[in-house]
Amino acid sequence: MPVLEPNPQALRSGTPRRAAPDRVPDLQARGTPKHLREELTAVLGPGKVLSKISDLVRYASDASPYRFVPQVVVVAEDIDDVSAVLSYAHGKGREVVFRAAGTSLNGQAQGEDILVDVRRHWAGVEVLDGGARARIRPGTTVVRANAALAPYGRVLGPDPASAIACTIGGVVANNASGMTAGTTRNSYRTVASLTFVLPSGTVVDTADPAADDELARAEPRLCAGLLALKADIEADLELTARIRAKYAIKNTNGYRLDAFLDADTPVGILRGLMVGSEGTFGFISEVVFDTLPLDRKVSTALLFFPSLPAAAAAVPLFNDAGALAVELMDGNTLRASVKVPGVPADWAELPKETAALLVEFRAPDEAGQEAYEEAAARVLEGLALVAPVASVTNAFTRDAGTVSGYWKARKAFVTAVGGSRPSGTTLITEDFAVPPARLAEACAELLELQARHGFDAAVAGHAAHGNLHFLLAFDAGDPADVERYAGFMDDFCKLTVERFDGSLKAEHATGRNIAPFLELEWGPKATELMWRTKEVIDPDGLLAPRIVLDRDPQAHLRGLKTIPTVEPIADPCIECGFCEPTCPSHDLTTTPRQRIVLRREMMRQADGSPVESSLLESYGYDAVDTCAGDSTCKLACPVGIDTGALMKEFRHQRHSPREERIAALTATHFRAVEAAARLAVGAAERVGDRLLGSVTGLARKAVRPDLVPEWLPEIPGAAPRRLPRTHRPAAVAVYYPACVNRIFGNPEGHRGPSLPEAVVALSARAGRPVWIPDDVAGTCCATIWHSKGYERGNEVMANRIVEAAWGWTAGGRLPLVVDASSCTLGIAHEVVPYLTDDNRALHAELTVLDSLVWAADELLPRLDVRHRVGSAVVHPTCSMRHLGDEDRLTALAGACAEEVVVPEDAGCCAFAGDRGMLHPELTASATAKEAAEVTARPFDAHLSANRMCEIGMDRATGRSYYSALLELERATRP
């Protein structure tokens, strides 16, 4: 064992607590039973079976209020793996649940036996017929699919609010729809064909002309059973009419019985039944969608009303005017949304009774847009709108930024409101639909029902389609509160069905919480047909039991998860999963959501329990060490939870006092450390990569991998010892070369000036000269210490750089230009919590500019581009995303190249200073998809704006990345 291996027990809470009723029992501390683990490994091969208790716990939660711990998790790589798991389960009498993104709101992504991950290896989009269709794999997010379609002016029909995270497999399996899909643009109506694996292992491609013949040979009993069900349904005219009526409004409760009416063959019937089947009929391995036009002329308004019923009453007017989307938000939703970046702060002062409609018209051209705006104006004339706070305009706008802000607030409904719930409470998200003409009446009844049961719920929804969502919070560990929730559900379901003949699930699918109420909505005859359909397709009950069909009237109360209080920064998390696609480690170890899920399980345990100890043993590497700390999870989370900051705090907690003292000493004497590092890098050029790799490898084993970086061949040579000479009197800005650019030189083979030389030359060439202070050596943005959780060292350097910068800039009169995006972020924002009060006041006087902003805004307009390359691919860094200056990178690249490509899978490279040297496997995993795009074709230039990220991308792609400012200097050189 390495001599400085951290003690896992350092992260033990130490807070006295009682064991929660839903804790993982001690008997499961060892994880998957040995025989199950060994048998599945023999069937699938090594590396595909996850069996540690930490693996089982992190897969036990989705975005729902339920939690079921699987016996084992299988990471399937292809259809052969899926078929092998199904065959094994048949032979052993086991059950299987498929899980992709885990954004389901009703427990569909949870299982109690074999859980199969079908996200990690199942992403991919192929655009067909000029964008008219798209072949998409089930692990692809909706956002990623639409990004591939956007250049063709096309879009998918389904547009759920969770599009950033939810995947196509789940969207189709739940028939999710969203803001604009309604009953005509959802998966059932826009899926052209499916490829799926039946419980028997038979693979069906519904687009294959021979599919019915092949299915008849392989599954004669199945085909006969489906045709018999079709005949029974069609022979009952009353039932047929009932089925058609149920789908006149949005409805995802139960199976799509209209599939028996819409198709004539077994394969056609299965194509319809698979949509909305929630993984109970088979595994969808590929989907071909018919896409829709992406109308780019958009007019949008956020209109405020005095009450929820008043807002609902206006919905039919906008529907008649041709609005594509009419979204409803009540006062609780609007007020909670202030936590979302960009939402006006004065929304917090809105009266509770206030409600708003987000109304959007989309047209293909200017004439169509003007016609819609005229129709909207006529509707507005007859409305009694209110403006309770100053930011309310009650006007339509074409401004893309304003429109984006409105939608950001709306899409954050579940997470923003959920993040505002009382600590320790469980969140329930309900979803129902009524005939749109009765929406106002339904709103009034819902408010009365909530008040009667003591709930102050938030309400929002797709009002154009009569579809409402509301959120309830209660304590799942308190039997009385669970009983209160149960009473509400009984009354709510009866109200929806008996008063409005509505749908108990409009788009979130039946799931565990509505399964007991299926017969209430559909009646015994239709419900029995659904049971018969399940028996015909899955006679052994192999797939996803109890998720759609359950005869237990209390099933919706089983498996409710408690939400123990954890560290304040993470406590608001509702486990929605929005953070997961952006996380660099999501294909390697854990995601931000899983890090929090694991921490909550520790809090459920009695102090010192075997399960807690097992979780802590794995948490160090799986959660803390392999977190890049880039905090892009904060950007994806609608309530801004920064799991990266939490992991840095955990790193701090693991440090010994001696380690903290040493880190503080390196900050205090950083001038010597910097010089030594530059000398070491220079010496390394003479020693050779192989020897250095061996030496650092041995040191990592002896000391600790998280302390000793691994030498990588891509590490460049040393930077020049002296920075370029500059003069202060004529300077219009202070230029701060980051320490990384004072230590490391240009990429191997790059001819031309160093980055500091290029910045100085460009600035002079544009008539905007800069000055480099003589005493920059020994200063740093403090990210070195901040990223590792060395608090004292961070404080030393944070205060030193701010004091120095204040002096260099003459008290903030000149801007400070920083040539590495992560260092810009560090100085501009991340140092602030570690400053003294006096230095915090100095910091407020500083203007810190990233070199990209300086070059794009100040230099480029004053420069003549003389030499352009044919193509450039760019790597936007995570720091650029935090700073909001990604567009400057593409602007600079566009000045230097005829073609600029931003990879659709571009994300954080996870090199994170030196983390990519401490854990090279993290960068390899994080960059795999982006690297595949980059290496699929040649480019003339590979551009970014952070030296360590460039090294990470060099390693990932085998291409040479360098600063966009180096390319700009070459392009504008006389």
Could you explain the architecture of this structure?
The strands form six sheets. Strands 12-14-13-16-17-15 form a six-stranded antiparallel beta sheet, sandwiched between helices. Helix 7 (211-218) crosses helix 8 (220-235). The longest helix has 22 residues, at 479-500. It contains 41 helices and 25 strands. Strand 5 (125-128) and strand 6 form a beta hairpin. With 974 residues, it is of the alpha/beta class.
Topology:
Layout lengths: L33 H11 L4 E2 L2 H6 L13 E4 L3 H14 L3 E4 L14 E4 L7 E4 L4 E4 L5 H8 L4 E2 L12 H7 L12 H4 E7 L5 E3 L5 H8 L1 H16 L1 H10 L12 H4 L3 H9 L8 E8 L1 E2 L3 E9 L2 H14 L3 E6 H6 L18 E9 L2 H16 L18 H12 L1 H7 L6 E8 L5 H14 L5 E5 L4 E8 L4 H22 L10 H4 L3 H20 L54 H13 L5 H16 L6 H5 L6 H12 L2 H12 L1 H18 L1 H14 L30 E4 L2 H5 L11 H11 L4 E2 L11 H6 L2 H18 L7 E3 L2 H10 L6 H8 L3 E3 H9 L9 E6 L3 H6 L2 H11 E5 L13 H4 L1 H7 L1 H7 L6 E4 L2 H11 L4 E2 H8 L3
Parallel strand pairs: 2-4, 3-4, 18-19, 18-20, 20-21, 22-23, 22-24, 24-25
Antiparallel strand pairs: 1-2, 5-6, 6-10, 7-11, 8-9, 8-10, 12-14, 13-14, 13-16, 15-17, 16-17
Helix pairs in contact: 7-8, 8-20, 12-17, 17-18, 21-22, 25-31, 29-41, 31-33, 34-36, 36-41
